[in-house]
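Morning F.,

Quick status update on the modeling queue. The single chain you submitted on Monday has been processed. Sequence for confirmation:
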Amino acid sequence: MSIFRGVQAAVDGAEEFVDDIELPGTLCGITIRSPVARGRLVSIDCPELPESCTLVRAKDIPGKNYLEDFKVPVLASSALSYIGEPVALLLGPDRLLVENLVSRCRVNVESENPRYGCRDFTEDQLAGSRDIRIGETDEAFKEAARVIEGVYRTGLQEHWYSEPSGALAEWLDGSARARIRVFTATQWPFQVKRAVAGTLGAAAGPVIVSPARIGVHLDGKIWYPALLACHAALGAYITKQPVRVMLTRREDFLYSPKRAPSEIRIRSAVGEKGRLLASEISVTADMGAYKVFADEILDQCCLGSLGIYKQQCIKINGRALSTNIPPAGPFAGFGLAQGFFAMERQAALIADTLKLNPIEWRKENILSRKKNPAIGVPFDEDIFPEKLLDTAAAMGDYHRKWAAYETLRDYRRSHGGPEKNEPLRGVGIAAAYQANGFLHDPAGKGVYTVELTLHKDSSLEIASSMVLSNSDYVSIWKNAASEILALDPANIRVIGGGAGTAPDSGPACLSRGITAVTQLVALAAGAIRKQRFRDPLPIKVRRSCKCSYVPQWGAETGRADRNAFSHAGWGAVVVEVEIDPVEYTPNIRGVWMSLDGGKILSQRRAWRATRFSIIQALGWASGERLSYEDGVIPDGQFLAYELPGLREIPPIHIDFIFNETALPKGIGDIPFNCVPAAFAQAVSQAVDYPFERIPVTARDIWDTGKFRRPRGAGP
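Structure tokens below.
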């Protein structure tokens, strides 16, 4: 199995993984889990424990038995919501001893009928709903020349972290200011701090969070590390010894959050010349147990399902549902990736139905400059998606390839299918944008801060709790401050990366490190420049960003952050595939991507981040098949789960539209928002079958029946 997602660059202050941190007398903590998907906990039968071991239950929690920002139980005390839900912890000095004792524990439950899937649901399963009406869709459909409908499904995706999820906590002696310190790989140290403080209550006192090496996370370590941190901290509080809770690779695979699966139905009213008149959209997202980021993921699914196209009349019914599988959660692209896959596949279906070039149909229906999506979330600057489409098309020779493959497809249709052992080729194109923040404030805090201090020796400190997976960010912040204050970057130090003395800078996701935090550093440096020759040193300046809401999105929440998409990054991509005539494997011949990232602060980092995201997006689209069966992922899927390996990486070509006058824009999630749709379109053209879900595998291609009796195969 490939370990490509384990590639990691060392980051200042976070050079050790959790499992590499050694503290004397550390106890091992192993989770005792629910055996049923839905029911009630009756009791836990445990064998006689040696004096060195301790059983920790929900009744031992001195504070709140749920995470502070997300209402997820720390340890289930009564209701059980998924197979594998933590009900207790067993602590001991030796992992083998503890594992043996855990295997002999029995969790007694009263089982109830679980609820899987999203087809038949009850009102109490609604984790969020949207009912959006803009214009008169009924009238638009009456006037339409064609009505075209598709149903698009996206599956789960595993993060496969560099290190399985875990946490280490130690109880500090009485001389320390804080009482508890937690080490964990988290994208949001302050969220961990709030969760641990809430779980331990007044018994904890101040909490220190020291981020461990985070590795490649794909936005999966925003909230889940807080749960394991609470487990480790609870054990350390009870035993007054360090406690490490590390999931095995299999546990992490089975129970940690995955990308939320979705089903999106789009019904489009199209005019005589292919103009998009109206859309009726039904969005369903399976959030699993609890409602973690349900509003954010649902809203971004709905927003993505509008694509980049102008529409006067829209009707959207959106639902986020709670089911009895482990909680879903953020994955790169949040819900925007699922929504864009649906709308970009619908765009290809419309063009194919009308016998139009997909790129030309897109350009005829694309959002114009400074045009807002009909939901009311604004783009505050000129947008040029046509230029990106043309650039990607030229890079990948799209027009010639599309015309040639269309001619071959028509020929095969009239001659009974492909020749025996004939390789089939197709090409696809798609476009999308990326947010630079949340539509909703995930923790209800609303203000995120950076602090700069200029000292008497002309050295500068940048304090931020933003945890980074790449040291390039540190260089970008140093260079931003250096340009404004005319300082040598060697005299600038970035401190923090945790919930200690640094201010809360928010979660490290949605390219916030390159956009929001870089802007705050520049603003604070500008303030210091104005003060440095008037006020005595040291000079300390804080600058914060605050969510700015507009009341135009979301039936339940009623508002969205206008800043989230005000400086969106944009991209277009061409993907070419060839279908192996023996194994039916869709082999990727090349990827060509054009990006508008605003002011590119580090071309090296931008290229590397984009290339990495393209590879992972192709994995989601082409091979990472994952599903729950009766509430659990079968062991066979764990053993067979494949990530893109170095040998499978296709030729990737990336072009940036440089704009030194623009603000930096996020680009790391854009490939997840457009590459899967372009891949599915390419395979659809090659096989002459409209694939409406991902991943598309060799088995899916075989099941279309196109290769069962190819022309020239004989009787």
